Amino acid sequence: MADEALIVLENVNKWFGPLHVLQDVNLSVARGEVVVVIGPSGSGKSTLCRAINRLEPISSGTITFDGQPLPAEGRALAKLRSEVGMVFQSFNLFAHKSILQNVMLGPLKVRKEKPAAVKERAMSLLDRVGIASQADKFPAQLSGGQQQRVAIARALAMQPKALLFDEPTSALDPEMVGEVLDVMTSLARDGMTMVVVTHEMGFARHAANRVVFMADGQLVEQNTPEEFFANPTSERARDFLSKIL
Ligand code: ADP
Ligand code: MG
Fold first, then answer.
1. Are 132 and 155 in contact (CB under 8 A)?
2. Which of 34, 141, 174, 223 is a Cys-bridge partner for 227, taking CB atoms 3.0 to 4.6 Å apart?
3. ipTM, interface predicted TM-score of the complex
């Protein structure tokens, strides 16, 4: 089961008008695998993430999740979205709801689960991300790092089969980056399937099974972090790494 592909993109293209932002992208993510996506701004990393849970429809090619083509609409799409959690740069918590309510909302409203069971799971997830003592506070009372950890707990509350992270630490003050990466590293070690867009090369080195380098809408190279950082094969990857390392 370990090598079975959970997310498969085949010849995926995406145009925004004349702009060809995903160009024949092929990518397969196995169950339990952690894939870190890096590359310059504008290279299509966010579009790739958004395509996987169909926040962005693709122009051509196919994406399958857990053996099924991505559904276009309706209940099947809602189910897909609950199985593929997403954590954004901006935490997008509901400001007028408590931390606990934020984490409980999806399972209650989307899944119609029983409140008692949802509350128990939400509290245990808040404990897992180190925020249990803040459960009754409101988002504005928490630091950015704490809010992002709540956003991760909220995604986990839906018991997803995979989590997508789009620059989850880019909006944080530097001293809060580590606490969020620690939570992500722990999820990775526990076998969560993750696609992570990040500029945190330390996380890529230590938590990724594979690093994917994108430039100009193309998946230019992919390799283990050891190989990628030691021997990037493309000029564009070498150039990118020379600027950020
Ligand atoms: P990255 O996340 O790597 O910075 P994006 O996926 O956000 O790149 O964007 C890839 C390209 O697509 C960029 O040129 C961006 O300006 C363009 N783009 C992204 N979203 C839209 C949109 N909704 N409409 C038009 N162009 C877009
Ligand atoms: Mg982006």
1. no
2. 223
3. 0.98
Ligand 1 test: best mutation among 21, 218, 220, most atoms within 8 Å of CB? 21
Q: Does the beta carbon of 45 lie inside 6 Å of ligand 1?
A: yes
Helical packing angle, 99-109 and 144-157, nearest 10°: 20
Within 10 Å of residue 157's Cβ, how many Cβ atoms? Answer: 25
Residues of the chain with pLDDT under 70: 1-3
Tokens (6 digits) for 107: 């399972």
Determine the pLDDT at residue 3.
61
CA-CA-CA-CA dihedral for 122, 47, 238, 184, to nearest 10: 0
CB 195 within 8 A of CB 162: yes
pLDDT at residue 245, as a whole number: 78
What's the predicted TM-score (pTM) here?
Answer: 0.96
Distance CA 186, CA 180 (A): 10
Q: Which residue among 12, 47, 165, 212 has the greatest number of ligand 1 atoms within 8 angstroms of its CB, and so is best to mutate?
A: 47
| SS3 per residue for 58-115 | CCEEEEEECCEECCCCHHHHHHHHHHEEEECCCCCCCCCCCHHHHHHHHHHHCCCCCH
pLDDT given for residue 15 in this prediction:
98
Three-class DSSP category at 153: helix
